[in-house]
Predict the 3D structure of the following.
Amino acid sequence: MAVAFPPAMRPLPAPALDADQVLAFVLVDVAVILVAATLLGALARRLRQPTVVGHIVAGIALGPTLLGPGVFTWGRPWAALHCDAALAASGALPSVGSCLFPPQARSVLGILGQIALVLYMLLVGLELDPRMLRGRGRGVATVAVGALAVPLAFGLLIGPLLYGATFTGAFGTPAQPSRLAFSLMVGAILSVGAFPVMAHILNERGMARTTMGSTGIAAAAALTVLMFLAVAAADAIARQEGVPEILATVALAGGYVAVMLVVVRRALAPLGRAVEARGTLSSTHFAVILALAFASALVAERIGINVITGAFLLGAVIPARSIVFPEMAARIQEVTVTALLPIFLAFSGLNTDLSSVPWSAAGGILVLLVAGVVAKLGGGAVSARLGGLGWGEASLLGVLMNCRGLLVLVVALVAVDAGVISPVLQVGAVVMALVTTAMTGPLFDALVRRVILVDVTYIGGAAKATWVRPGQGGS
Protein backbone atom coordinates (compact mmCIF):
# COMPACT_ATOMS: atom_id res chain seq x y z
CA MET A 1 0.00 0.00 0.00
CA ALA A 2 1.40 3.40 -0.94
CA VAL A 3 2.12 5.78 1.93
CA ALA A 4 2.17 9.56 1.49
CA PHE A 5 4.29 11.73 3.77
CA PRO A 6 2.51 14.61 5.58
CA PRO A 7 3.96 17.98 4.47
CA ALA A 8 6.01 18.42 7.66
CA MET A 9 7.53 14.95 7.35
CA ARG A 10 8.48 15.02 3.66
CA PRO A 11 12.24 14.68 3.14
CA LEU A 12 14.11 17.70 1.89
CA PRO A 13 14.87 17.68 -1.85
CA ALA A 14 18.10 15.88 -2.62
CA PRO A 15 20.58 16.90 -5.29
CA ALA A 16 19.97 15.35 -8.69
CA LEU A 17 21.99 12.39 -9.91
CA ASP A 18 25.31 13.27 -11.46
CA ALA A 19 26.50 11.93 -14.80
CA ASP A 20 28.43 9.02 -13.28
CA GLN A 21 25.41 7.90 -11.29
CA VAL A 22 23.13 8.09 -14.33
CA LEU A 23 25.62 5.98 -16.28
CA ALA A 24 25.71 3.41 -13.49
CA PHE A 25 21.91 3.21 -13.44
CA VAL A 26 21.74 2.79 -17.22
CA LEU A 27 24.29 -0.02 -17.18
CA VAL A 28 22.48 -1.84 -14.38
CA ASP A 29 19.09 -1.29 -16.02
CA VAL A 30 20.25 -2.66 -19.36
CA ALA A 31 21.62 -5.76 -17.66
CA VAL A 32 18.36 -6.31 -15.76
CA ILE A 33 16.29 -5.79 -18.92
CA LEU A 34 18.38 -8.24 -20.96
CA VAL A 35 18.12 -10.95 -18.30
CA ALA A 36 14.34 -10.55 -17.99
CA ALA A 37 13.84 -10.32 -21.76
CA THR A 38 15.98 -13.40 -22.42
CA LEU A 39 14.16 -15.52 -19.86
CA LEU A 40 10.64 -14.48 -20.85
CA GLY A 41 11.51 -14.50 -24.56
CA ALA A 42 12.64 -18.14 -24.21
CA LEU A 43 9.41 -18.94 -22.36
CA ALA A 44 7.39 -17.33 -25.15
CA ARG A 45 9.15 -19.48 -27.76
CA ARG A 46 8.40 -22.62 -25.74
CA LEU A 47 4.76 -21.58 -25.84
CA ARG A 48 5.05 -21.18 -29.63
CA GLN A 49 4.74 -17.40 -29.43
CA PRO A 50 6.91 -14.70 -31.04
CA THR A 51 9.80 -13.61 -28.86
CA VAL A 52 8.40 -10.09 -28.86
CA VAL A 53 5.51 -11.28 -26.66
CA GLY A 54 7.98 -12.31 -23.96
CA HIS A 55 9.84 -9.02 -24.35
CA ILE A 56 6.64 -6.98 -23.90
CA VAL A 57 5.74 -9.00 -20.78
CA ALA A 58 9.27 -8.46 -19.44
CA GLY A 59 8.87 -4.71 -19.81
CA ILE A 60 5.52 -4.76 -18.00
CA ALA A 61 6.95 -6.96 -15.23
CA LEU A 62 9.78 -4.48 -14.61
CA GLY A 63 7.40 -1.51 -14.58
CA PRO A 64 5.02 -0.15 -11.94
CA THR A 65 2.54 -2.97 -12.52
CA LEU A 66 4.56 -5.34 -10.29
CA LEU A 67 7.32 -3.13 -8.87
CA GLY A 68 5.63 0.25 -8.47
CA PRO A 69 4.40 2.17 -5.40
CA GLY A 70 0.83 1.21 -6.22
CA VAL A 71 1.73 -2.35 -5.16
CA PHE A 72 4.09 -1.56 -2.29
CA THR A 73 6.56 1.11 -1.25
CA TRP A 74 10.18 0.57 -0.31
CA GLY A 75 10.60 1.96 3.17
CA ARG A 76 14.37 1.58 3.33
CA PRO A 77 15.86 1.40 -0.18
CA TRP A 78 19.49 0.47 -0.54
CA ALA A 79 21.78 3.45 -0.12
CA ALA A 80 23.69 2.45 -3.27
CA LEU A 81 20.61 3.21 -5.39
CA HIS A 82 20.53 6.89 -4.29
CA CYS A 83 16.73 6.86 -4.35
CA ASP A 84 16.51 10.28 -2.71
CA ALA A 85 18.50 11.89 -5.50
CA ALA A 86 16.93 9.80 -8.27
CA LEU A 87 13.37 10.69 -7.30
CA ALA A 88 13.89 14.26 -6.13
CA ALA A 89 12.77 15.82 -9.40
CA SER A 90 9.78 13.54 -10.01
CA GLY A 91 8.49 13.42 -6.44
CA ALA A 92 7.65 9.72 -6.82
CA LEU A 93 7.49 7.44 -3.79
CA PRO A 94 10.36 4.98 -3.35
CA SER A 95 9.65 1.54 -4.77
CA VAL A 96 11.72 -1.19 -6.39
CA GLY A 97 10.77 0.01 -9.87
CA SER A 98 11.12 3.75 -9.30
CA CYS A 99 14.48 3.37 -7.53
CA LEU A 100 15.93 0.88 -9.99
CA PHE A 101 14.68 2.76 -13.06
CA PRO A 102 14.85 6.48 -12.13
CA PRO A 103 13.57 9.10 -14.61
CA GLN A 104 17.10 10.16 -15.56
CA ALA A 105 17.98 6.63 -16.64
CA ARG A 106 14.64 6.08 -18.37
CA SER A 107 15.31 8.96 -20.74
CA VAL A 108 18.54 7.29 -21.85
CA LEU A 109 16.76 3.93 -22.24
CA GLY A 110 14.16 5.65 -24.44
CA ILE A 111 16.91 6.96 -26.72
CA LEU A 112 18.51 3.51 -26.95
CA GLY A 113 15.10 2.11 -27.87
CA GLN A 114 14.70 4.62 -30.70
CA ILE A 115 18.15 3.67 -32.02
CA ALA A 116 17.01 0.03 -31.96
CA LEU A 117 13.96 0.87 -34.08
CA VAL A 118 16.11 2.71 -36.63
CA LEU A 119 18.56 -0.17 -37.04
CA TYR A 120 15.87 -2.84 -37.19
CA MET A 121 13.73 -1.05 -39.75
CA LEU A 122 16.83 -0.32 -41.85
CA LEU A 123 17.33 -4.09 -42.13
CA VAL A 124 13.64 -4.65 -42.97
CA GLY A 125 13.89 -2.08 -45.77
CA LEU A 126 17.06 -3.66 -47.10
CA GLU A 127 15.43 -7.09 -47.20
CA LEU A 128 12.43 -5.93 -49.24
CA ASP A 129 12.92 -7.09 -52.82
CA PRO A 130 11.53 -4.42 -55.22
CA ARG A 131 11.44 -6.95 -58.05
CA MET A 132 8.65 -8.82 -56.28
CA LEU A 133 6.51 -5.65 -56.34
CA ARG A 134 6.58 -5.05 -60.09
CA GLY A 135 3.02 -4.78 -61.28
CA ARG A 136 1.74 -4.91 -57.68
CA GLY A 137 1.38 -1.16 -57.12
CA ARG A 138 -2.41 -1.25 -57.15
CA GLY A 139 -2.48 -4.19 -54.76
CA VAL A 140 -0.07 -2.54 -52.32
CA ALA A 141 -2.03 0.72 -52.39
CA THR A 142 -5.38 -1.06 -51.93
CA VAL A 143 -4.15 -3.09 -48.96
CA ALA A 144 -2.53 -0.08 -47.28
CA VAL A 145 -5.51 2.25 -47.73
CA GLY A 146 -8.05 -0.41 -46.73
CA ALA A 147 -6.04 -1.43 -43.64
CA LEU A 148 -6.12 2.23 -42.55
CA ALA A 149 -9.61 3.33 -43.63
CA VAL A 150 -11.54 0.53 -41.92
CA PRO A 151 -9.88 0.95 -38.49
CA LEU A 152 -10.25 4.73 -38.72
CA ALA A 153 -13.96 4.24 -39.37
CA PHE A 154 -14.17 1.96 -36.31
CA GLY A 155 -12.30 4.60 -34.30
CA LEU A 156 -14.84 7.25 -35.26
CA LEU A 157 -17.57 4.76 -34.31
CA ILE A 158 -16.31 3.76 -30.85
CA GLY A 159 -14.51 7.02 -30.01
CA PRO A 160 -17.66 8.73 -28.68
CA LEU A 161 -18.36 5.64 -26.53
CA LEU A 162 -14.91 5.85 -24.89
CA TYR A 163 -14.78 9.64 -24.64
CA GLY A 164 -14.75 10.50 -20.95
CA ALA A 165 -12.63 10.97 -17.85
CA THR A 166 -11.32 7.39 -17.86
CA PHE A 167 -9.84 7.25 -21.34
CA THR A 168 -9.38 10.86 -22.46
CA GLY A 169 -6.23 12.80 -21.72
CA ALA A 170 -6.48 15.98 -19.62
CA PHE A 171 -10.22 15.45 -19.27
CA GLY A 172 -12.06 18.24 -17.50
CA THR A 173 -9.38 20.83 -18.26
CA PRO A 174 -9.12 23.46 -20.99
CA ALA A 175 -6.48 21.26 -22.62
CA GLN A 176 -8.76 18.24 -23.07
CA PRO A 177 -8.94 17.05 -26.71
CA SER A 178 -12.06 17.35 -28.81
CA ARG A 179 -14.17 14.30 -29.58
CA LEU A 180 -12.87 14.34 -33.16
CA ALA A 181 -9.20 14.43 -32.09
CA PHE A 182 -9.78 11.63 -29.56
CA SER A 183 -11.72 9.45 -32.00
CA LEU A 184 -9.13 9.95 -34.71
CA MET A 185 -6.35 8.95 -32.31
CA VAL A 186 -8.32 5.85 -31.28
CA GLY A 187 -8.67 5.01 -34.98
CA ALA A 188 -4.91 5.46 -35.44
CA ILE A 189 -4.27 3.06 -32.55
CA LEU A 190 -6.66 0.53 -34.10
CA SER A 191 -4.95 0.87 -37.50
CA VAL A 192 -1.47 0.00 -36.26
CA GLY A 193 0.10 -3.04 -37.88
CA ALA A 194 3.19 -4.82 -36.61
CA PHE A 195 5.48 -4.02 -39.50
CA PRO A 196 8.58 -5.60 -37.87
CA VAL A 197 6.69 -8.64 -36.55
CA MET A 198 5.07 -9.25 -39.95
CA ALA A 199 8.48 -9.22 -41.59
CA HIS A 200 9.82 -11.56 -38.89
CA ILE A 201 7.00 -14.11 -39.29
CA LEU A 202 7.27 -14.12 -43.08
CA ASN A 203 11.06 -14.49 -42.88
CA GLU A 204 10.80 -17.39 -40.44
CA ARG A 205 8.51 -19.23 -42.85
CA GLY A 206 10.51 -18.43 -45.99
CA MET A 207 7.68 -16.33 -47.43
CA ALA A 208 9.06 -12.78 -47.23
CA ARG A 209 10.16 -12.76 -50.86
CA THR A 210 7.01 -14.26 -52.32
CA THR A 211 4.47 -12.03 -54.05
CA MET A 212 2.15 -12.23 -51.06
CA GLY A 213 4.96 -11.54 -48.58
CA SER A 214 6.42 -8.64 -50.52
CA THR A 215 2.97 -7.13 -51.06
CA GLY A 216 2.22 -7.41 -47.37
CA ILE A 217 5.53 -5.87 -46.27
CA ALA A 218 5.28 -3.01 -48.75
CA ALA A 219 1.65 -2.37 -47.78
CA ALA A 220 2.63 -2.39 -44.11
CA ALA A 221 5.32 0.18 -44.88
CA ALA A 222 2.84 2.43 -46.67
CA LEU A 223 0.32 1.87 -43.88
CA THR A 224 2.91 2.98 -41.33
CA VAL A 225 3.34 6.31 -43.11
CA LEU A 226 -0.44 6.81 -43.40
CA MET A 227 -1.00 5.78 -39.79
CA PHE A 228 1.51 8.28 -38.44
CA LEU A 229 -0.08 10.94 -40.62
CA ALA A 230 -3.36 10.13 -38.87
CA VAL A 231 -1.60 10.45 -35.50
CA ALA A 232 -0.14 13.80 -36.56
CA ALA A 233 -3.59 14.97 -37.70
CA ALA A 234 -5.17 13.94 -34.38
CA ASP A 235 -2.40 15.73 -32.50
CA ALA A 236 -2.88 18.87 -34.62
CA ILE A 237 -6.63 18.86 -34.06
CA ALA A 238 -6.11 18.37 -30.32
CA ARG A 239 -3.81 21.40 -30.31
CA GLN A 240 -6.50 23.25 -32.27
CA GLU A 241 -4.33 23.76 -35.33
CA GLY A 242 -6.04 24.60 -38.57
CA VAL A 243 -6.44 22.68 -41.79
CA PRO A 244 -3.40 24.40 -43.43
CA GLU A 245 -1.05 22.98 -40.76
CA ILE A 246 -2.45 19.48 -41.24
CA LEU A 247 -2.20 19.71 -45.03
CA ALA A 248 1.37 20.98 -44.65
CA THR A 249 2.31 17.84 -42.72
CA VAL A 250 0.73 15.62 -45.38
CA ALA A 251 2.52 17.54 -48.15
CA LEU A 252 5.86 17.29 -46.37
CA ALA A 253 5.41 13.55 -45.88
CA GLY A 254 4.50 13.02 -49.53
CA GLY A 255 7.42 15.13 -50.70
CA TYR A 256 9.81 13.30 -48.40
CA VAL A 257 8.72 9.87 -49.68
CA ALA A 258 9.05 11.07 -53.30
CA VAL A 259 12.54 12.46 -52.67
CA MET A 260 13.65 9.20 -51.07
CA LEU A 261 12.27 7.01 -53.87
CA VAL A 262 13.54 9.16 -56.74
CA VAL A 263 16.33 11.55 -55.78
CA VAL A 264 18.07 9.63 -53.00
CA ARG A 265 17.81 6.33 -54.86
CA ARG A 266 19.61 7.81 -57.87
CA ALA A 267 22.16 9.61 -55.69
CA LEU A 268 23.11 6.29 -54.09
CA ALA A 269 23.81 4.59 -57.43
CA PRO A 270 27.60 5.29 -57.22
CA LEU A 271 27.70 3.65 -53.80
CA GLY A 272 26.01 0.57 -55.26
CA ARG A 273 28.52 0.37 -58.11
CA ALA A 274 31.42 0.68 -55.66
CA VAL A 275 30.04 -2.13 -53.48
CA GLU A 276 29.47 -4.38 -56.49
CA ALA A 277 32.99 -3.70 -57.76
CA ARG A 278 34.49 -4.71 -54.41
CA GLY A 279 32.10 -7.62 -53.96
CA THR A 280 31.80 -6.75 -50.29
CA LEU A 281 30.72 -3.93 -47.99
CA SER A 282 33.64 -1.87 -46.71
CA SER A 283 33.74 -0.22 -43.30
CA THR A 284 33.35 3.17 -44.99
CA HIS A 285 30.24 2.08 -46.88
CA PHE A 286 28.85 0.56 -43.69
CA ALA A 287 29.32 3.86 -41.83
CA VAL A 288 27.80 5.86 -44.69
CA ILE A 289 24.66 3.69 -44.74
CA LEU A 290 24.23 4.00 -40.98
CA ALA A 291 24.70 7.77 -41.11
CA LEU A 292 22.13 8.07 -43.90
CA ALA A 293 19.68 5.87 -41.98
CA PHE A 294 19.84 8.09 -38.91
CA ALA A 295 19.60 11.23 -41.03
CA SER A 296 16.54 9.89 -42.84
CA ALA A 297 15.01 8.86 -39.51
CA LEU A 298 15.55 12.38 -38.17
CA VAL A 299 13.79 13.96 -41.16
CA ALA A 300 10.85 11.57 -40.81
CA GLU A 301 10.61 12.31 -37.08
CA ARG A 302 10.60 16.06 -37.67
CA ILE A 303 7.87 15.71 -40.28
CA GLY A 304 5.80 13.66 -37.84
CA ILE A 305 5.80 10.18 -39.40
CA ASN A 306 8.22 8.57 -36.92
CA VAL A 307 11.81 7.37 -37.16
CA ILE A 308 10.84 3.88 -38.31
CA THR A 309 9.49 5.24 -41.60
CA GLY A 310 12.71 7.08 -42.36
CA ALA A 311 14.90 4.09 -41.58
CA PHE A 312 12.77 1.72 -43.67
CA LEU A 313 12.71 4.03 -46.69
CA LEU A 314 16.47 4.43 -46.61
CA GLY A 315 16.87 0.66 -46.56
CA ALA A 316 14.38 0.30 -49.42
CA VAL A 317 16.37 2.59 -51.76
CA ILE A 318 19.87 1.23 -51.03
CA PRO A 319 21.39 -0.35 -54.19
CA ALA A 320 23.40 -3.59 -54.43
CA ARG A 321 21.06 -5.15 -51.84
CA SER A 322 22.17 -8.73 -52.58
CA ILE A 323 25.56 -7.76 -51.11
CA VAL A 324 24.56 -5.04 -48.67
CA PHE A 325 21.75 -6.83 -46.82
CA PRO A 326 23.56 -10.02 -45.74
CA GLU A 327 26.61 -8.06 -44.60
CA MET A 328 24.59 -5.42 -42.74
CA ALA A 329 22.51 -8.16 -41.13
CA ALA A 330 25.62 -10.08 -40.08
CA ARG A 331 27.04 -6.97 -38.40
CA ILE A 332 24.06 -5.51 -36.56
CA GLN A 333 21.08 -7.87 -36.55
CA GLU A 334 22.01 -9.93 -33.48
CA VAL A 335 22.78 -6.91 -31.32
CA THR A 336 19.67 -5.08 -32.51
CA VAL A 337 17.17 -7.92 -32.04
CA THR A 338 18.69 -9.49 -28.93
CA ALA A 339 19.83 -6.42 -27.00
CA LEU A 340 18.41 -3.13 -28.26
CA LEU A 341 14.79 -3.96 -29.14
CA PRO A 342 14.13 -5.43 -25.67
CA ILE A 343 15.27 -2.09 -24.24
CA PHE A 344 12.59 -0.27 -26.23
CA LEU A 345 9.92 -2.74 -25.16
CA ALA A 346 11.03 -2.46 -21.55
CA PHE A 347 10.87 1.32 -21.81
CA SER A 348 7.25 1.03 -22.93
CA GLY A 349 6.52 -1.33 -20.04
CA LEU A 350 8.07 1.05 -17.55
CA ASN A 351 5.40 3.56 -18.56
CA THR A 352 2.55 1.04 -18.27
CA ASP A 353 0.84 0.45 -14.93
CA LEU A 354 -1.80 -2.28 -15.12
CA SER A 355 -2.40 -1.97 -11.37
CA SER A 356 -3.74 1.56 -11.85
CA VAL A 357 -6.53 0.51 -14.21
CA PRO A 358 -9.95 0.56 -12.51
CA TRP A 359 -12.33 -2.34 -13.05
CA SER A 360 -14.78 0.14 -14.56
CA ALA A 361 -12.39 0.52 -17.51
CA ALA A 362 -12.48 -3.18 -18.40
CA GLY A 363 -15.52 -2.81 -20.66
CA GLY A 364 -13.97 0.03 -22.64
CA ILE A 365 -10.69 -1.84 -23.06
CA LEU A 366 -12.64 -4.88 -24.29
CA VAL A 367 -14.47 -2.69 -26.82
CA LEU A 368 -11.11 -1.34 -28.03
CA LEU A 369 -9.70 -4.87 -28.38
CA VAL A 370 -12.69 -6.34 -30.23
CA ALA A 371 -12.91 -3.34 -32.56
CA GLY A 372 -9.20 -3.62 -33.30
CA VAL A 373 -9.36 -7.31 -34.18
CA VAL A 374 -12.46 -7.00 -36.36
CA ALA A 375 -11.24 -3.88 -38.15
CA LYS A 376 -7.73 -5.05 -38.90
CA LEU A 377 -8.27 -8.74 -39.57
CA GLY A 378 -11.43 -8.26 -41.62
CA GLY A 379 -10.41 -4.98 -43.22
CA GLY A 380 -6.96 -6.29 -44.09
CA ALA A 381 -8.30 -9.48 -45.66
CA VAL A 382 -10.99 -7.73 -47.71
CA SER A 383 -8.63 -5.02 -48.96
CA ALA A 384 -6.04 -7.66 -49.90
CA ARG A 385 -8.68 -9.54 -51.87
CA LEU A 386 -9.71 -6.32 -53.64
CA GLY A 387 -6.02 -5.76 -54.35
CA GLY A 388 -5.82 -8.91 -56.44
CA LEU A 389 -4.80 -11.67 -54.02
CA GLY A 390 -6.76 -14.89 -53.64
CA TRP A 391 -8.85 -15.39 -50.52
CA GLY A 392 -6.23 -17.72 -49.00
CA GLU A 393 -3.41 -15.21 -49.35
CA ALA A 394 -5.73 -12.34 -48.42
CA SER A 395 -6.76 -14.11 -45.21
CA LEU A 396 -3.13 -14.64 -44.30
CA LEU A 397 -2.42 -10.95 -44.81
CA GLY A 398 -5.45 -10.07 -42.69
CA VAL A 399 -4.06 -12.17 -39.84
CA LEU A 400 -0.65 -10.51 -40.19
CA MET A 401 -2.17 -7.03 -40.36
CA ASN A 402 -4.05 -7.72 -37.12
CA CYS A 403 -0.79 -8.27 -35.26
CA ARG A 404 0.19 -5.10 -33.36
CA GLY A 405 3.62 -5.96 -31.95
CA LEU A 406 5.66 -3.02 -30.72
CA LEU A 407 4.36 -0.25 -33.01
CA VAL A 408 1.10 0.17 -31.09
CA LEU A 409 3.26 0.92 -28.05
CA VAL A 410 4.99 3.67 -30.04
CA VAL A 411 1.66 5.22 -31.06
CA ALA A 412 0.23 4.92 -27.55
CA LEU A 413 3.25 6.72 -26.07
CA VAL A 414 2.89 9.47 -28.67
CA ALA A 415 -0.83 9.81 -27.89
CA VAL A 416 -0.26 10.01 -24.11
CA ASP A 417 2.54 12.54 -24.50
CA ALA A 418 0.25 14.63 -26.72
CA GLY A 419 -2.42 14.58 -24.00
CA VAL A 420 -5.05 13.02 -26.27
CA ILE A 421 -5.52 9.71 -24.43
CA SER A 422 -5.12 8.81 -20.77
CA PRO A 423 -2.62 6.30 -19.30
CA VAL A 424 -5.57 3.94 -18.83
CA LEU A 425 -6.21 3.81 -22.58
CA GLN A 426 -2.47 3.35 -23.07
CA VAL A 427 -2.82 0.20 -20.97
CA GLY A 428 -5.61 -0.85 -23.34
CA ALA A 429 -3.16 -0.47 -26.23
CA VAL A 430 -0.65 -2.68 -24.39
CA VAL A 431 -3.35 -5.33 -23.86
CA MET A 432 -4.14 -5.14 -27.57
CA ALA A 433 -0.46 -5.56 -28.40
CA LEU A 434 -0.19 -8.68 -26.27
CA VAL A 435 -3.44 -10.34 -27.36
CA THR A 436 -3.18 -9.68 -31.10
CA THR A 437 0.52 -10.55 -31.24
CA ALA A 438 -0.06 -13.78 -29.31
CA MET A 439 -2.93 -14.86 -31.59
CA THR A 440 -1.08 -14.16 -34.83
CA GLY A 441 1.29 -17.14 -34.92
CA PRO A 442 -1.30 -19.86 -34.15
CA LEU A 443 -3.87 -18.32 -36.52
CA PHE A 444 -1.33 -17.94 -39.30
CA ASP A 445 -0.06 -21.54 -38.99
CA ALA A 446 -3.58 -22.95 -38.78
CA LEU A 447 -4.64 -21.01 -41.87
CA VAL A 448 -1.63 -22.15 -43.86
CA ARG A 449 -2.41 -25.80 -43.04
CA ARG A 450 -6.12 -25.51 -43.68
CA VAL A 451 -6.43 -23.18 -46.64
CA ILE A 452 -3.23 -23.41 -48.63
CA LEU A 453 0.06 -25.21 -48.75
CA VAL A 454 3.14 -23.26 -49.64
CA ASP A 455 6.14 -24.51 -51.57
CA VAL A 456 8.85 -21.86 -51.77
CA THR A 457 12.00 -22.32 -53.83
CA TYR A 458 14.77 -19.84 -54.53
CA ILE A 459 16.08 -19.49 -58.03
CA GLY A 460 18.90 -17.03 -58.57
CA GLY A 461 18.05 -15.19 -55.35
CA ALA A 462 14.38 -14.75 -56.28
CA ALA A 463 11.55 -16.64 -54.63
CA LYS A 464 9.04 -18.75 -56.49
CA ALA A 465 5.98 -19.95 -54.57
CA THR A 466 3.33 -22.47 -55.53
CA TRP A 467 0.03 -22.19 -53.65
CA VAL A 468 -1.90 -25.47 -53.52
CA ARG A 469 -5.16 -26.32 -51.78
CA PRO A 470 -4.95 -29.26 -49.33
CA GLY A 471 -5.51 -32.58 -51.00
CA GLN A 472 -4.18 -31.43 -54.38
CA GLY A 473 -0.81 -32.05 -55.89
CA GLY A 474 1.71 -29.28 -56.19
CA SER A 475 4.48 -28.38 -58.58
